[in-house]
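Q: Got a minute? One more chain.
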Amino acid sequence: MITGFSKSPGQRGPQHESYEEKYERRCEKHESLLRRNNRTTCRLTGKEAKEPAQSPRQKEFFRRRNLTTEELGRTKMMLPPGKRGTVFPVNCSDNLGEIPPQTYLNYLSNIQPHTKSIQHNFSNIFPLSKSSQAMPVMNVPTNCKGTQTTKELSSEKKNSCQQTDCGTAVLDKEIIQLSNYLNEALHRELVLKKKMVILQELLAMLLEAAEKSWKGQFNEDKLKCRLSMLENQLQICTQNYSKRGLKRIILEMEDQKQNYEQKVKESLQKLLEEKTQAQKQFQNAQRALIVAVDDCSLWKDQLDNLKKDWSQLTDQHSEVKNKLHVLENKLQWSDTQNSQLQQALKDMENERANLYSRIDNLQEEKILIMKYLDEVEGKLRTEKNQKLILEATTEHLQKQIVTVPNEVLSWVTSKQNVQSEDQGEKESSLREELQKRTFQLAAKKKEVKSVLISVIN
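A: Always. Here it is, folded:
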């Protein structure tokens, strides 16, 4: 495209503008026109008649059929059919999602002329009346009506009932209402399915229309660029230039061509690089996906193993709990036994202390008895010594018998007899007492031995 020459008076846009800048400017202008809220065409032509008040029954009817009063009043906000084009409501920017398909297509027909061929198909799908007060109302059969449209039953039918298997009585009125509810639900489901099919077809047609509009705009821009280029060429041809001027113009055109080719090559190279990067990213994403799938499978296996281990651990935990209860019972029993044994040990220690005290007493008694026996033995020794002395005196006296007279001899003999009797009595008493002491000592020894044996056991 040649830039640098004067343009025709009908041509718009600033001078020294390249093709890419012009294309971007036109796209932005087109988008701004699409987004613009045309307040001038949205004004109403006159005062409209107020809508008649709807009864609660009609409101319930429209609510059950998913029909709102806004759709009824939306047709009244349109301009008369004599006006050119289709006008949106005043708040078209806010309620763009609630605009009927036919009005939206009429709006597109004002902007994009080549989409008029699709309007006939949409008018067949969504028929709308031309008058502002006409509204399509669905004729619902009587068997599809809800509880608010059921007819009054006779008194006999109201009072009739049926017996169920469970023994409860159900009125026929309730059964009829239930059947009406079911029929109404089926009807709604069918209507929703039809709406879904129509919306899918509408979406496909809208996508096709958008693609066609984009292609038409692109072709229009190409034609305009071609036309401007031809106008520039015509202007150059009509003017009289010298050979040097023509050469200069040709050289400028070649430079522009080379620059344009260089830009195109750079853009293509960038696109190729972006494509390779996208392919690499896609491959990396695929690899990452494969790795993630493998990791997911591994994590799933680990999860299964953990679940199995968890089940085993729960079983082991229950077993350990049971064992713990058994051990607690055993521990309680052992505690009771320990307390009993400690009590018995205390009793044994008390008995042992008593026995040790008795042993000490017996030892003291033994010491006393030994002392007494020593005293008795000393007395016996003294008696024996006295006896020996007496025997010696008797022998000495027997030697002197010859010289001593008979009277003296008789006195001495009588005295000796008395002394011998006294000594015999003393000896007998001492022997009896010694025997008693020995018997007591033997009994004490037996008792001490028995106590020691019991303590050792």
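A: Strands lie at 161-163, 169-171.
Q: Perfect, thanks.
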